[in-house]
Amino acid sequence: MNSTALKTAYILLVHKNPDQVNKFIEQILLDENSDIFIHVDQKNNMMSAKITKHPRVKILKVSIDVKWGDISMVDATLLLLKEVLATGVEYDFVCLRSGQDMLVKNGFKDFLFKNKNKIFISAYHVVRNEPHAAFVNLKWPEWTRRLYIQPYHPIRLIRRGMASLYGFGLNIQPNKNSLPKEFSLYNGSNWFCIPLKVACFIVNFLVENNWYYEAFKNSLVPDVFFFQTLIMNSEFKTEVVNRNLMFIQFGESIKTRNNPITLKMDHIEIIKNSNEYFARKFDQGVDYQVIEYFAKLAKI
Predict the structure, then answer these.
(1) Residue 149 neighbours by CB under 8 Å, 6+ apart
(2) Which of 191, 256, 201, 197 is nearest to 223 (CA)?
(3) Residue 157 covered by a domain
(4) Where are the alpha helices (DSSP H) in 119-195?
(5) What pLDDT shows up at residue 85?
(6) Radius of gyration of the CA atoms of the chain, in A
(7) Residue 177: pLDDT above 90?
(8) Is residue 151 in some structural domain?
(9) What whole-number distance in Å separates Cα of residue 190 and Cα of residue 188?
(10) CATH number of 254's domain
(11) How far apart are CA 133 and CA 163, in angstroms?
(12) Quick one: which of 195, 203, 247, 278 could link to 274 by a disulfide (CB 3.0–4.6 Å)?
């Protein structure tokens, strides 16, 4: 087998800008052994009609209302993984990306071929008694699991307070379905590229161990813990490369430091110098020129 025969399933979480999404799809489809599975956010599912029609592009019929901060992001990802497995196709890799990503460097398929069986996901150990662990070990009310942009929004201040108290040993809202003590907690960006066997492991494990899902059901931003923790507590942890192959730049101010900035033409050199194959986030309403630039430049 050579790199041209490598089969990849791209699973995309999409919620806006169908023209921009189509640019990303066009990049992926240049590889004849790549298939694309798309979940369109229920809030904007009318955009499905505007997404490129192609035999290798499948849009999920089931659509979830994906909300920042709660389990819905995990739910949508699991739907995509199950859709891939249901095809019965022996993919080599399954790559989770979003509709605001672009391929920004050539040679990704050759890279995957040279790293078969490796797991590309960012995963950092979180000590059980540090404030960050409160995201999982507390039961967060629904009103706290929302995106509040203003850094001093009352709800954000409440969240910081709850996490700080947890760090001092006071859990004011314990998660009664918390993970077993022997499970180490891991955190990182939710984007990944995993071998098919790992996708199978994830889906099968959750079928047989519902307690794991329940442990994250009322956690805060579970998508940055869920898959990392499961993989790093499995036999596959030795295959993990702590890298999700994605360039993301966060803001420097208090307001923007927790969210990726929107990339523009001004960022082209820093994107290239990152040596990553993908980048996010792009937005056609902010800078369409940079999207066009990478659409012409980078190929699978």
Answers:
(1) 255
(2) 191
(3) no
(4) 134-137, 154-167
(5) 98
(6) 19
(7) yes
(8) no
(9) 6
(10) 3.90.550
(11) 8
(12) 247
Look at the block and give the residue holding tokens 């910081």: 160
| Helix and strand numbers, DSSP H then E, in the chain | 10, 12
Closest listed residue to residue 279, CA positions, set 105, 101, 22, 13: 101
Which amino acid belongs to residue 150?
A: Q
The residues, ordered by sequence, that sit 6+ positions from 31 with a Cβ below 8 Å of its Cβ are 8, 109, 300
Q: Is 115 exposed, middle or buried (0-12, 13-18, 19+ CB in 10 A)?
A: middle
Query: Do the Cβ atoms of 202 and 121 come closer than 8 Å?
Result: no
Q: How far apart are CA 39 and CA 11, in angstroms?
A: 8
Looking at the structure of the chain, the number of domains it has is 1
Structure tokens at 103: 């391929």
Task: Write down the pLDDT at residue 254.
Answer: 60
pLDDT at 151 over 90: no
Contact 144, 222 (CB under 8 A): no
Task: Tell me how many degrees the CA angle 88-94-99 measures, rounded to the nearest 5.
Answer: 120
Within a domain: 156: no
* DSSP H or E segment with residue 36: strand 34-40
Q: What is the mean pLDDT of residues 33-45?
A: 96
pTM of the model: 0.95
Q: Is residue 139 part of a domain?
A: no
| Count of positions (residues) in the chain | 300
> Which H or E run includes 109?
helix 108-114
Instruction: Identify whether 217 is preceded by a cis peptide bond (ω within 30 of 0).
Output: no
Give which of 179, 184, 299, 195 is closest to 241, Cα–Cα. Answer: 195
> How many angstroms separate the CA atoms of 94 and 17, rounded?
23
CA torsion through residues 113, 276, 237, 33, sign: negative
